[in-house]
Amino acid sequence: MKNKLNILITTVGGMTSPDILRAYKDCDEFEINLIGVDAFEFAVGKKFVDIFELSPNSVVNEKLFVEFIQEMVKKYKVDVVIPCGNEDNLALSKYSELVSCKIMVSSYDSLIKAYDKGTVYKELTEHMPEHAPRYEIVNNYEQFMISIKKLGYPNNKVVIKPRFGRGGRGVYILCNKFNFQNVFESKPITEYPLEFFEKILRDENKFDDLIIMEYLDEPYYSVYSISNNGENIFSLNHIREWGNASQTFRGRVCYDVKIENLAAKIIEKFNLSYTNNIELATSSDGRIVLFDLNPRIGASSGIDKDIGFNFPLEALKLLLGSNITVDKSKFEKPKIFLRYFDQVWDHND
Length: 349
Prior knowledge:
Elements: E1 3-10, H1 17-25, E2 30-38, E3 51-54, H2 62-76, E4 80-82, H3 86-94, E5 102-103, H4 108-114, H5 117-127, E6 135-138, H6 141-150, E7 158-162, E8 172-174, H7 180-184, E9 191-192, H8 194-201, E10 210-214, E11 217-228, E12 231-243, E13 248-254, H9 257-270, E14 274-282, E15 288-294, H10 311-319, E16 335-338
């Protein structure tokens, strides 16, 4: 007979949430009752869970959000809480003592560092410089103009993004080369001329920290790992063949010991536990460089269950005290996945 578990998952409204939810529902080892919560009424994940509840927004009031989670824990006799959003992770880690069950989350101190791109890049520059991007942190227009020139503009593209951004939000590319074809014959891109940024930033006395970073190119690596207290157990490499900075629509998956060793160093440096996602790309001088670190369940972590490793489920087992063993040789031959859009209907109106 399967062990029964009541699992509460937060932020179930993401585009790829169904993959993660199915990774739990389709398992053979447990009989899992899923309680999904989200601050958005039309969260797509509500169609993939057994129970759905509207939650407060952890961005607006993190303690109120955690108190709500505890109410759900008592109401549904929840065994494990799995936070999926950045802010949910931070809130539940910060106030973990208010929740009377296990939470799949790293320590608050580790998360604060890992979610701060400025801190991540600084740590890499000091301890793993070959994998650190060239970058500057700015908070006024004068600094902005100096930084883009230091990073090679106008001859080179430059990436501009918020220091504490999430999920690819607010990421832009400063570019000096536009023509009719790449503007009117292509799908919309995030490349903009200097005038766009000047109009926004010039009249701002001071603004929230922005990261000005060197432009990175293919190949892009989206690395999914399972770890425990800073010790990596296993990593799979998703090479992005088609997609954007935050989503892979066609990817090639394989075990790569070189990439796993790099992931292990990063995981140890930031003391990460359970599942995480590391985004890497290639610098102009051929280095493999980290540009994003997601110390939580990543967008594509659920899809590898189809080729023999279920990251969400294995992380759950790790939290419950199991030892995780992996035959890494099973994943050496590359396999290609294709993602597509599907839909569900909301019949509540």
